[in-house]
Structure formats: C-alpha cells, structure tokens
C-alpha cells in the first residue's frame, strides 16, 4: 500500500530581493521594500512530502528520523540563520521563495529512502509557494 508522508522544518534567514539584470531604479520599482539594501528576515517553514510503499515490517513509508537527519545536514545546516543572498544557489538567481522552493526540491531529490512528491515553503503568514518538479508535458 502506497502512502504519503509530510514533515515540516523551520529556519530563520535573511535576504534581499535584487536582480543583477536590473539597474538600481528598476530593482526598487520591481521589488519595492524588499529591495532595501539592509535586507530583512523571515521565519521560513519548509514542508516536504514524500511517498512510497508502507513497509509491512516497520509500518512506515520511511523513518522520520532518517528524513530529519537528511534535513539537518542538507537543509538546516546550510540555510539556518544565513543571508540567503550569500549562498551559491542565489549567486545568479533572485532569493524569492519560488527559487528557494526549487532549491529545496533539488536538495530533497537526494533523499533516497522515499520518492519526493513536492515541497511547500511558507515565507510569511500570507505567502506560501509549492514546487513539485517538472511536470510531464503529457499531462498538460
Ligand atoms: N513572487 C514573489 N513575490 C514576493 C516574494 C517572493 O518570494 N515571491 N517575496 C517577497 C518578500 O520577500 C517579502 O518579504 C514579503 O513581503 P510582504 O508580501 O510584504 O509580506 P507579507 O505582507 O506577506 O507579510 P509581512 O509579515 O507583513 O511582511 C515579496 N514579494
Ligand atoms: Zn522577504
């Protein structure tokens, strides 16, 4: 029997929305207050959903302890209390939560104990973003 499992992780981080493709004025117009040179912070929540067969011996899709260990090493140790703009993954892309969601998805593709379905990232109480990888064009 196949089942889905979701787990939430939390980390604070700062960022500044800024594009090297725009001049200073265009950056101010497009990103508004989020282009403030001093940056600002969020308490991000990342929800990861994986799926797989429920192992009859353990009753689990995968062990949460294994997912937590993977998240600690590959997500939290990298993103917790950092300025996102300083990370290699945002060297050439804007630190929006769309791009953060894609990076988080890419990271959890490396978790091999279950199949990655999607990631959901909450930036504020009002903003959340989802990424589920590339959609098979056959389904569009
Ligand atoms: N398409 C996107 N638009 C915006 C993003 C984003 O990631 N993708 N991010 C931001 C900000 O980083 C910003 O900090 C959010 O600002 P704002 O919308 O003002 O925040 P909220 O009103 O939801 O919450 P507050 O707690 O009042 O800041 C902007 N746009
Ligand atoms: Zn922000």
From TrEMBL:
InterPro entries listed in its UniProt record: 6-PTP_synth/QueD, 6-PTP_synth/QueD_sf, PTPS_Cys_AS
Superkingdom of the source species: Bacteria
Keyword Chloroplast recorded: no
SUPFAM superfamilies: Tetrahydrobiopterin biosynthesis enzymes-like
Annotated pathway: Purine metabolism; 7-cyano-7-deazaguanine biosynthesis
Gene3D superfamilies: 6-pyruvoyl tetrahydropterin synthase/QueD
EC number: 4.1.2.50
A GO BP entry: tetrahydrobiopterin biosynthetic process
Gene Ontology molecular functions: 6-carboxytetrahydropterin synthase activity; 6-pyruvoyltetrahydropterin synthase activity; metal ion binding
Top EC class of this enzyme: lyase
Substrates-to-products reaction catalysed: 7,8-dihydroneopterin 3'-triphosphate + H2O = 6-carboxy-5,6,7,8-tetrahydropterin + triphosphate + acetaldehyde + 2 H(+)
Pfam families in UniProt: PTPS (PF01242)
The protein's required cofactors: Zn(2+)
Entry keyword set: Lyase, Metal-binding, Zinc
Family the entry assigns: Belongs to the PTPS family. QueD subfamily.
Official protein name in the record: 6-carboxy-5,6,7,8-tetrahydropterin synthase
